[in-house]
Amino acid sequence: MPGIRFRLLLPFLSLLAGPAFGQSGPVPDPGLRAEFLAQATGKYGLPAGEVEAWLARASYRQSIVDAMARPAEAVKPWKDYRPIFLTGKRIADGRLFLARHREALAKVEADTGVPAEMIVAILGVETSYGSITGSYPVLDALYTLGFFYPASGKPEQVERERRRGAFFRDELAQVMRLADEEGLDLASLRGSYAGAMGWGQFMPSSYRAYARDGDGDGRRDLFRSLPDVFASVANYFVAHGWEPGAPVAMPAVAGEGARFQPDGLEARYSLAELGEAGFRPAQALGEDRPATLVTLEGDAGVEHWLGFRNFYVITRYNRSPMYALAVYQLSREIAAAREAALAP
């Protein structure tokens, strides 16, 4: 296997590695470096020489720090965020993608209960159906953010960034472990500036925990195997509590004087409780299902949405209510073509 052959070269590479070979820019804090080495070898069972070799090959990239400091969608209101993903082209491409892979997606839907259009919508939002999977070296991205994540401002902000740095160092160790497990050439892996990879943009920890072998070849390949990609996205949803056949989200109507501030995105409030606060479903649901309230700035003014358990599951993929609503709405647009084809 390519991964095994490459691993045999690592001791030799470690002798060659250095600033002239791969590493450039600032040097990691010695204490953090030692802590990382202990974590990678102890927690993940990686040989110390292999870890040292990969660290020597990694390069600091200022462009990654800059990208992390200004995520494109984070500051946009819903009225500006939605048009990024709900375009005529993305909808049309999603319908075509669903039609082309209908059989494979239908099998995953039958096995997991996750609708085919939901899987396709995730791929549409994340990578435009595999056409934009990221160009940053994953090794460099996780190395840069793990050891040089920008920390400044108030003490609580510094502490938050310190925790994020620890998160990315853990992801760096996990991608090294992942490369060994799946026979991946870590040096050639490309992804987002945050280190997310493949068609579904899985972080290394998510790849290791939730990826599935959908084509039965003994590997979990989220770069080239669509059956693996479909099965893995669906499994991520299932692992986080997807409820087959249950609603995702629904517009809510606010009565006079309606006021409610939910505690997070988890669906923990009964419809009766939300009704007492002045918010009711735009359409009768027929049952008192737990939900949360999402309030966004739309084109026509304030929008209120009820997010159910499956809405919360989508936010486990990306912890943004706007992301979850964009995925849901795109999935409905994609599904419209299938539903029209099945109509008598």
From TrEMBL:
Catalytic machinery residues: 126
Gene Ontology MF terms: peptidoglycan lytic transglycosylase activity
Presence of keyword Protease: no
GO BP terms, alphabetized: peptidoglycan catabolic process
Matches recorded under Pfam families: SLT_2
Keyword Kinase appears in the UniProt entry: no
Domain Transglycosylase SLT: 35-331
Gene3D superfamilies: 1.10.530.10, Bacterial muramidase
Family matches, as SUPFAM superfamilies: Lysozyme-like
Signal peptide span: 1-22
Sorted UniProt keywords: Signal
Stored PANTHER family: MEMBRANE-BOUND LYTIC MUREIN TRANSGLYCOSYLASE B
UniProt-listed NCBIfam families: MltB
Protein name: Lytic murein transglycosylase B
Organism (species): Arenimonas fontis
Gene field: mltB
